[in-house]
Amino acid sequence: MSLNPPILISLFRSLGLLLLLAGVGQVAAQTAHNPDEAAADLLAQRIEKHGSLEQAQAEARKSGQLVAERCYLCHGEDGNKTSSTSGLVIPNLAGQQPLYLLQQLRHFLAKSRNHPAMYSMIKDLGDEDLLNLVLYYSGQTLQPMVSSYRDDEKEKGRQVYTKLCIYCHGPEAAGQLGIPRLRGQNPAYVVQNLLRFRDLSPDRLHEGMNTITAKLTDQEINALAVFLSSP
After folding, report:
1. At CB < 8 A and 24+ separation, what contacts does 32-38 make?
2. What is the mean pLDDT of residues 3-22?
3. Is the pTM above the cut of 0.90?
4. What confidence score (pLDDT) does residue 4 get?
5. Residues 6+ apart with CB under 8 A from 210
6. Which of 10, 119, 132, 216 lies most in the core, judged by the most C-beta atoms within 10 Å?
7. pLDDT at 10 > cutoff 80
């Protein structure tokens, strides 16, 4: 389903206000300190300026590509990571939800998501650079990773996804607003982060995800990764 620009902008702004709503007089102050609210408002302003998400992505392509030059080694030239880097598990960024990307970058900067390497790479970027970066990556075409898998593993993963994940991440696992796209993601990255959510890793504390993953077995997590990374 395609949303027209005014509705999309309204959704971004509504999300920003609802995240930590504590009274009209406090919203501006909260936005300054809360990465998710600030990200939603910044992105809404950029989309409103250009009239649509697609136009905002087109306008940011050249500037975003310049910023992304610092990210190529780990995330790939167009956000498609096809090989490991020094044994690190790295996500694909191409086609990812722009609000999710912007929120996570602001979490890295606020150190509420602890990742020294990411902080070091982006600490000098301002809001305009961050917006250009996420619009660039979100506008790239995702190239699903080619991996070996068994049909029974994929089917098991589909069943788990349908039971637990489809309500937030959508029927095509494409995500929405601040909820990430999972389809086409690096399977090792999916496994790593689901384990972190399940095992209450300090850098992956999220009430909804912690609750959803609490009872997942290692086998179910592996099956989910197979399903989400398979064609």
Report:
1. 35/103, 35/106, 35/107, 35/109, 35/110, 35/112, 36/103, 36/106, 36/178, 38/106
2. 49
3. no
4. 55
5. 197, 198, 200
6. 132
7. no
